[in-house]
């Protein structure tokens, strides 16, 4: 058995709004069935669920920062969908904490929160989904949402940049270990993209400066990132396993 092009069972973490919603919509439009995960935004997750094309989609709530919560989410998604073929690790926190302005106690708490959600939850959910993919015997895909900040630096959000760099490294390690089972693992590293959470930052002088980071003079739309995620999860993208795909409109170039 090989991974099909559509009709797959897809778990998208952090799918209540923003990029997670766009990713869920892209898979649903492709004919896949989606488990829409949320941590606390149940109402917004229901909006995401109601926006999806097709049928057979489900809501799955749970705190991924808690290892037991990750187990509950993976179990609920697999039970509702009949298995898991694709995992998109999108759930993340991004709290401002520039070192010169942040008291030590707050600094420690913010770092612990970022590591728990951005890194450990990604690692744990990847383990839970991959073991199911191995047992199913039909291969699978894991796509991690990383960040341009892992390379460019995040002076106001250092824990975010550091944990996203770790997510990239995790994805490459898993790409090697899971390839014998037909499971491809890749990451995307988006630059700035427009969501509800950052809409205020795109106003006025700050917004102009952010758009000027790209020679295209704009920021990305979530649908542009979601399209790349959908392709990396496709059967055609197996040979891209281990990649970190930059999606930043030439705002940060590396070689």
UniProtKB/TrEMBL annotation:
Origin superkingdom: Bacteria
Keywords per UniProt: Oxidoreductase
Keyword Oxidoreductase listed: yes
Gene3D superfamilies assigned to the protein according to its UniProt record, in alphabetical order: NAD(P)-binding Rossmann-like Domain (3.40.50.720)
Keyword Nucleotide-binding (UniProt): no
Family indicated by similarity: Belongs to the short-chain dehydrogenases/reductases (SDR) family.
Protein name per UniProt: SDR family oxidoreductase
